[in-house]
Amino acid sequence: xxxxxxxxxxxxxxxxxxxxxxxxxxxxxxxxxxxxxxxxxxxxxxxxxxxxxxxxxxxxxxxxxxxxxxxxxxxxxxxxxxxxxxxxxxxxxxxxxxxxxxxxxxxxxxxxxxxxxxxxxxxxxxxxxxxxxxxxxxxxxxxxxxxxxxxxxxxxxxxxxxxxxxxxxxxxxxxxxxxxxxxxxxxxxxxxxxxxxxxxxxxxxxxxxxxxxxxxxxxxxxxxxxxxxxxxxxxxxxxxxxxxxxxxxxxxxxxxxxxxxxxxxxxxxxxxxxxxxxxxxxxxxxxxxxxxxxxxxxxxxxxxxxxxxxxxxxxxxxxxxxxxxxxxxxxxxxxxxxxxxxxxxxxxxxxxxxxxxxxxxxxxxxxxxxxxxxxxxxxxxxxxxxxxxxxxxxxxxxxxxxxxxxxxxxxxxxxxxxxxxxxxxxxxxxxxxxxxxxxxxxxxxxxxxxxxxxxxxxxxxxxxxxxxxxxxxxxxxxxxxxxxxxxxxxxxxxxxxxxxxxxxxxxxxxxxxxxxxxxxxxxxxxxxxxxxxxxxxxxxxxxxxxxxxxxxxxxxxxxxxxxxxxxxxxxxxxxxxxxxxxxxxxxxxxxxxxxxxxxxxxxxxxxxxxxxxxxxxxxxxxxxxxxxxxxxxxxxxxxxxxxxxxxxxxxxxxxxxxxxxxxxxxxxxxxxxxxxxxxxxxxxxxxxxxxxxxxxxxxxxxxxxxxxxxxxxxxxxxxxxxxxxxxxxxxxxxxxxxxxxxxxxxxxxxxxxxxxxxxxxxxxxxxxxxxxxxxxxxxxxxxxxxxxxxxxxxxxxxxxx
Length: 801
Fold this sequence. Notes:
Elements: H1 22-31, H2 34-54, E1 59-67, E2 71-72, H3 82-87, E3 94-95, H4 96-103, H5 106-116, E4 120-126, E5 129-132, E6 139-146, E7 154-160, E8 165-168, E9 176-179, E10 184-186, E11 190-196, E12 207-212, H6 215-225, E13 227-232, E14 235-244, H7 247-305, H8 310-346, H9 364-384, H10 394-476, E15 482-490, H11 498-523, H12 530-536, E16 541-546, H13 563-580, E17 587-593, H14 600-613, E18 618-622, H15 630-633, H16 643-648, E19 658-660, E20 666-669, H17 678-682, H18 686-697, E21 700-704, H19 713-717, E22 723-729, H20 736-747, E23 753-760, H21 762-765, H22 769-778, H23 790-798
Helix pairs in contact: 2-11, 5-6, 5-7, 7-10, 8-10, 9-10, 13-14
Protein name: AAA domain-containing protein
InterPro entries: Bact_polysacc_biosynth/exp, GNVR, LPS_length_determ_N, P-loop_NTPase, Wzc-like_C
Transmembrane segments: 32-52, 499-519
């Protein structure tokens, strides 16, 4: 028989697939479990109450610090040359981001921890209540010799007996009494002592818990809690924040942090400034020695070269050279004049004539002789005008004239010798000057090099002197680059806030059941809803059947009673009729499933009863030859001969094998004795003969067959059937079986292949509640409502969890 896809009208319980949109389905799904949500909300509210009871409030602490002077928020240096920035560390610009990192550095934090002794915590224990004793502790822990390592910290517990004695709790060695200030030796802490404070009188018989931590670890914890942020890069204001259970401690931490930072910055600046001054002093000493050496070298050079000032000396040489040249020229002129006079005087032709005179003659004695000679010569000329040349009167005049001429010649000779001497002297002088002028460039070069070296060192020396004075003045009046704008102050407790805690508890109270239900559904490997079937397979669903808690195998009655399940089977009967179409007699329907206990025997037997009540002559075949159940359902003897006898003995009278069920119109053909080879028996043609014979007598032939995922019997029997009804049981059939159902459908192994979703528990799976609540109430006017016991109500309520 070929497979036929038939439109089926199914009886559907309100569920994911049949009640409104997906959102409405989801709401109904979760609201069904409202007791779970109520219990979860109550539980989280109780937890919130105790949380608020035991959680101490945490206070936010804030402070603000401002950076002054030239600042840079982008890492650039402002208006400072590299040399000045190096030699004047006090005036270098402040890079805010760098300072923020310094403030958050472990070095600064460690100083805060050690100064405030935050690595020791004191707690007053009174019953279940604990009180932090920051700045109120009656004792103070002090190391004498620390141990090797504290690990995560060491806890001590003491009881103060009086103002001088305390008891140290020791579970291993027994409690011991110690005096305050007395050394105590323990393996984990080393040697330590407890000093009493001014608060000791207020804590008599008090139990104090002391936790001694590792300062490094405490510093790391403190670093993670403190935030240092630059609010606006255009304004150098830095905000510091932290939180603490004790506001006073939080304020002390921030104030100490800012103070430590300022002190560290000042010390760093002073240290850098002192380093710069020390460097300048060393350099000045070195330059002083070098300058002394250079000046001595210049002095020795001037002395050896007979130098005063090269420029003046050069000009003097030039002036002397000009004067020598002029003197030599004057001497030449005088020599020329004297030689002319001498030639004139020695010329016989001019014996009685006077030599010519020259205005350039500079010697007064020669000029005096010339004048005397001119007077005698004039006197002789006057005598010649009256006397003859031979007159004896001329003898005295001639003698006088001859004597004057001789003197004149001698004078000329002497003057010539003098001029020659002058020329020789100037020539010698000029040679010395020329030699001196030739040495000047070399001297100037050597002197300039020595002077340049000396002047360069003088400039450096002068610069360092000025810089030292400048840094010294700043060092003496150094001010901090930062200023505290707002001291640390505590705000209102930021946590816990009861309103927020209860809102969170409500959210968790609602979310926890949702997560639990979602996880429970996600981890469930078994089919729970019709939608899971419809999403996975294309095989139509013939109907849905509710789960029955009682053990009665036949739940369908002809009159009043189990109304809901009875109506479901009647709808299933109607859908079966639609499935078979026009066939009204001899309809063969096979019931099977994937595995056992999915309800095929229950459904087939109750559907057979429903068909019989409808006036259709029906027979049900117990064809599960391995594990028969139908006979037991109807209270029939399993020893009665049945199908196996017919298949083995082909001439067996069939009428002797059929048994009445006790319900009018319904007969049962039992299994008979269990055979070792049921599959081979079902392969025989006698099975077809059996079915055809029964079709002639009965309107409906229902076959209860074995699960097909376990044995192949149902595949063999399917050749005789007009339709196959495949059972799926809620909460029992595995989701993996849906893929197997698809494989069977794709292989077209069964005719008119349909499914029945059986054993639906609306309370457990939030499925089908609408049928009982709404659908049932519409029939309440003519049908008695099923009685619910207190136990059933309680079980129904528990299923909502």
